[in-house]
């Protein structure tokens, strides 16, 4: 197996004893997280915004999504670095989840665009505290040889959580407050189970001391250290590829409810939220299949790049389907193919990234830096998407732009040298 050409200066800690139930609990935690992001972000929040300002809903949703993603981008790596320094993940998982419950309850109680935006920023901030600590558990506790399989299983959180989230949201579309409380409770329960049933494994003393020493440096040095992972060739290209893929994906998916409402010819009697409840399981079943197969096959063949590059290219090409056929059938085909592509990409790319992390003791911090490639493009995506839709006259240019970004993301995988 090809490894990054970086030597870890801190001796590796002994492998912790295998914890029964760890992966199922991580799957549940990731599923709950994705249920919030997909159910609230794709259905409840757009419905709430449309009810407040139906005329300017695209621009308002774009502004709220962009500003809130700044909070996601900031809080994820900060929380990751703090959990590195503390040496534990459990308190950050539980604290982030309970704070998210409170923020979602607040979101369900407000009725102006300003307060909706404020509340969603709080949800993004608190959910990213939860996410940073949960994400770090895989490089903390899973041996490198099993990362593809583990990442694939954990990656099932997207199809499972996404499907459950959209179904819950579609059923509570007329009762937003109830829907928000259900999502908050789901995350809180997942955090309680993970932190109670699977004990926290303290990080090595050397790793904690290294994190504490890094925190004691001057601010400029800390910022340089925080971003130092981007100076490593392979990690930098993995970051770029992830950022482009996520930007292309969320430029389109973030507006899917409005696309169904304003662009696609739906069958008579089928509302946009009901259509989302059909399309999402189609996409997520395909995503689950490709997530499992991609992770298992990438482990068996010891190949990551080919899976990541091909799936990113496929994600770009399928964006043309709703352009050629802006129909219900076209959207069904698009959802299935897009699910196949994105599921394989996220599962294998996550495994690839854990193999190019510069320093094992900074795993959560560096995974937090990588998560800037998840959250950062989501800052840009709503602004870009709303500008394209309003400035270029519809959703067809949006699909084309999203496809181009994914194709370029596929090319960004090629320069990675340390992983096959």
UniProtKB/TrEMBL annotation:
Which keywords does this chain's UniProt record carry? Membrane, Transmembrane, Transmembrane helix
- PANTHER family membership: MAJOR FACILITATOR SUPERFAMILY (MFS) PROFILE DOMAIN-CONTAINING PROTEIN, PTHR23528
Keyword Transmembrane: yes or no? yes
User: Could you tell me which residue ranges the Major facilitator superfamily (MFS) profile domain spans?
Assistant: 23-420
A single MF term (Gene Ontology): transmembrane transporter activity
Membrane topology annotation: Multi-pass membrane protein
**Gene3D superfamilies membership:** MFS general substrate transporter like domains
Q: Where are the transmembrane segments?
A: 25-47, 59-79, 150-168, 180-198, 239-258, 270-294, 306-325, 331-357, 369-389, 395-416
Where does this protein reside within or beyond the cell? Answer: Cell membrane
Main location group? membrane
Tell me the protein's name.
Answer: MFS transporter
Q: Does the keyword Transmembrane helix apply?
A: yes
Any one GO CC term of this protein is:
plasma membrane
State the signal peptide span: none
């Amino acid at each position: 197996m090809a490894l990054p050409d970086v030597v870890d200066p801190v001796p590796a800690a002994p492998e912790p004893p295998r914890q029964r139930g760890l992966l199922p609990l991580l799957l549940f935690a990731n599923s709950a997280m994705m249920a919030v992001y997909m159910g609230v972000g794709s259905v409840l929040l757009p419905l709430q915004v449309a009810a407040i300002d139906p005329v300017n809903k695209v621009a308002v949703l774009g502004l709220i999504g962009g500003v809130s993603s700044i909070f996601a981008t900031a809080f994820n790596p900060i929380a990751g670095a703090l959990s590195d320094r503390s040496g534990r993940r459990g308190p950050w998982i539980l604290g982030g989840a309970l704070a998210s419950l409170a923020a979602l309850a607040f979101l369900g109680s407000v009725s102006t665009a300003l307060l909706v935006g404020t509340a969603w920023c709080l949800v993004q901030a608190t959910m990213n505290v939860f996410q940073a600590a949960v994400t770090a558990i895989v490089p903390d506790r899973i041996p490198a040889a099993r990362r593809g399989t583990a990442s694939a299983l954990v990656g099932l959180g997207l199809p499972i959580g996404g499907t459950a989230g959209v179904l819950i949201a579609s059923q509570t579309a007329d009762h937003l407050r109830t829907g928000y409380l259900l999502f908050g409770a789901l995350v809180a329960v997942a955090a309680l189970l993970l932190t109670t049933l699977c004990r926290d494994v303290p990080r090595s003393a050397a790793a904690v001391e290294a994190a504490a020493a890094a925190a004691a440096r001057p601010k400029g040095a800390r910022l340089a250290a925080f971003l130092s992972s981007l100076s490593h060739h392979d990690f930098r290209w993995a970051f770029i590829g992830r950022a482009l893929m996520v930007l292309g994906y969320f430029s389109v998916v973030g507006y899917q409810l409005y696309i169904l409402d304003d662009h696609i010819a739906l069958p008579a009697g089928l509302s946009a939220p009901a259509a989302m409840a059909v399309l999402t399981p189609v996409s997520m079943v395909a995503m689950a299949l490709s997530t499992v197969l991609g992770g298992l096959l990438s482990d068996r063949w010891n190949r990551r790049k080919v899976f990541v590059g091909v799936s990113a290219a496929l994600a770009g090409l399928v964006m043309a389907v709703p352009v050629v056929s802006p129909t219900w059938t076209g959207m069904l085909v698009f959802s299935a193919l897009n699910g196949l592509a994105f599921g394989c990409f996220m599962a294998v790319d996550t495994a690839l990234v854990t193999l190019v992390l510069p320093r094992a003791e900074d795993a959560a911090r560096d995974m937090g830096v990588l998560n800037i490639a998840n959250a950062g493009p989501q800052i840009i995506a709503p602004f870009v998407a709303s500008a394209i839709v309003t400035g270029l006259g519809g959703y067809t240019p949006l699909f084309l732009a999203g496809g181009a970004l994914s194709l370029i993301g596929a090319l960004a995988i090629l320069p990675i040298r340390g992983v096959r």
